[in-house]
C-alpha cells in the first residue's frame, strides 16, 4: 500500500476523535503517548484494532496525529529534541532512510514479541511490521466475467478494452512492468538494479502508455474505478475492498497475478520521552489475538503468523495475506527504493512528459 498517497485528514479539534484517544494539545506533558499515522479509514481501523483496546487494558491515554509520510517532520523533531510524536506508522522507504540516519529507536525485540512468530520481513531493526498491504491487479468482474489473470494481461487492450489506471509514480510501476515482462519475483530487484533492467521496465511501460490513465491520489483512483474511467488498475487493495463494501461493487483482486506487498511499519522516534509506553503499545498490538482483531476492520493480513488460527475462514479469504499470497507475490524492496527513488523519479517525470 502506498500510504504516502493517502489523504492527510487530521481530525479537526476533538469532533471526530476516536473514543480512546485524547485531543493533542501540542504539549508532551499532556500526553501519555502520541500515535501518528495516515488518517482516514485506515487510521480509524488502527484506532479500533490497536489503540482503543490498549487504552482499555492499560489506562494509557493516546493522542493521535496524522501526516502524509514526510520524513522531514520526523527529522525536525528528533534533531531539535522537541519530540511530539512517539509511535509512527512509517512507509518502508522512509523507514530505511530514517533508520540509517538515527531518527528511530533500534528496537529491543525482547520487549515486544518472539521474532519467530512473525513473517521474516516484519522483523526489522528500527520497526515492527504489523500487517502487510499492497497493490493488486483489479477490474470490474461485472463487466468482464472472464477477466485478466496476470500482470501481462493488463497490456492486452484488444481482449479487455479501456484505460488502465496507474499511480503517477515510478515506484511499483517499474516493479510491475518487469513482472509483466516475464521477470521472476526472485530476480525482480536484481534486474531493476541494473541500467538494462530500468530500460526494460520503461520500454514495457512504453507499450501501454497510450492506454494509461494516471492518478495522483488513492481517492482519485477509487472514483475512476467506480465511474468506469478505467477498466482495470493497479490499486491498493484496502481501497478496492472498501469500494466493494460501501457501494456493493464487484472489483476483483487477481490473486493469480500476485501482489506487490508493503508492510505497515511501527517505529518509535529516537529520544521519545514515552519509550516505555511505546514498547508496551508495540507488544500489545503484536499479540496474535489483537492482530487477528485487526482484520475485522481492514483487509490486510497480520504479520504475526499465529494470528491466522484465530481468524474466521470467510474473513481470511478476503485478506491480502502475506502468508497465503499468490505465487507471484513479492515484497517491495524498500531499501532499493530508498536509494534510487530520487533518480528514478526524475527519469519517470521526463518519460511521462514525452
Describe it.
It is a single chain. This protein has 354 residues and is of the alpha/beta class. It has 2 domains: 3-132 and 262-316, D-Maltodextrin-Binding Protein, domain 2; 133-260 and 328-353, D-Maltodextrin-Binding Protein, domain 2 (3-Layer(aba) Sandwich). 37% of the residues lie in helices and 15% in strands. It has helices at 40-58, 71-80, 92-100, 170-180, 188-192, 195-208, 218-227, 237-247, 275-285, 288-294, 313-316, 334-353, and strands spanning 21-22, 33-37, 62-66, 87-90, 128-139, 164-167, 212-215, 232-236, 260-268, 301-302, 330-331. Strands 1, 2, 3, 4, 5, 6, 7, 8, 9, 10 and 11 form an 11-stranded mixed beta sheet that branches. Residues 1-29 have low confidence and may be disordered.
> The CATH topology of the largest domain, please?
D-Maltodextrin-Binding Protein, domain 2
Structural class by SSE content: alpha/beta
Count of the separate structural domains: 2
Largest sheet: number of strands, sense, barrel closure: 11 strands, mixed
Amino acid at each position: 500500500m502506498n500510504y504516502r498517497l493517502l489523504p492527510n485528514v487530521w481530525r479537526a479539534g476533538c469532533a471526530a476523535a476516536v473514543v480512546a484517544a485524547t485531543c493533542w494539545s501540542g504539549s508532551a506533558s499532556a500526553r501519555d503517548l502520541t500515535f501518528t499515522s495516515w488518517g482516514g479509514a485506515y487510521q480509524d481501523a488502527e484506532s479500533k484494532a490497536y489503540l482503543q483496546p490498549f487504552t482499555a487494558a492499560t489506562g494509557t491515554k493516546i493522542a493521535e496525529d496524522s501526516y502524509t509520510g514526510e520524513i522531514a517532520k520526523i527529522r525536525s523533531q528528533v534533531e531539535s529534541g522537541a519530540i511530539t510524536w512517539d509511535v509512527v506508522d512509517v512507509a518502508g522507504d522512509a523507514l530505511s532512510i530514517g533508520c540509517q540516519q538515527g531518527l528511530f529507536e533500534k528496537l529491543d525485540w525482547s520487549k515486544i514479541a518472539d521474532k519467530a512468530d512473525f513473517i521474516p520481513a516484519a522483523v526489522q531493526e528500527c520497526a515492527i511490521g504489523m500487517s502487510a498491504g499492497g497493490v493488486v491487479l483489479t477490474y470490474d468482474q461485472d463487466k468482464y466475467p472472464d477477466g485478466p489473470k496476470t500482470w501481462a494481461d493488463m497490456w492486452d487492450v484488444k481482449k479487455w478494452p479501456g484505460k488502465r489506471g496507474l499511480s503517477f509514480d515510478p515506484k511499483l510501476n517499474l516493479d510491475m512492468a518487469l513482472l509483466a515482462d516475464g521477470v521472476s519475483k526472485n530476480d525482480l530487484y536484481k534486474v531493476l538494479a541494473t541500467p538494462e533492467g530500468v530500460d526494460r521496465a520503461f520500454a514495457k511501460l512504453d507499450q501501454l502508455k497510450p492506454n494509461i490513465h494516471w492518478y495522483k491520489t488513492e481517492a482519485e483512483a477509487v472514483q475512476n474505478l467506480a465511474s468506469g474511467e478505467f477498466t482495470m488498475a493497479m490499486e491498493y487493495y484496502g481501497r478496492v475492498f472498501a469500494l466493494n463494501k460501501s457501494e456493493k461493487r464487484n472489483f476483483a483482486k487477481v490473486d493469480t497475478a500476485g501482489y506487490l506487498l508493503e508492510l505497515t511499519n511501527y517505529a518509535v522516534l529516537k529520544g521519545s520521552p514515552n519509550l516505555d509506553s511505546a514498547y508496551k503499545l508495540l507488544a500489545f498490538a503484536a499479540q496474535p489475538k489483537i492482530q487477528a482483531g485487526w482484520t475485522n476492520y481492514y483487509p490486510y493480513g497480520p504479520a504475526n503468523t499465529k494470528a491466522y488460527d484465530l481468524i474466521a475462514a470467510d474473513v481470511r479469504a478476503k485478506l491480502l495475506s502475506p502468508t497465503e499470497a499468490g505465487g507471484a507475490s513479492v515484497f517491495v524492496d524498500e531499501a532499493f527504493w530508498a536509494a534510487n527513488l530520487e533518480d528514478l523519479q526524475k527519469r519517470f517525470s521526463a518519460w511521462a512528459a514525452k
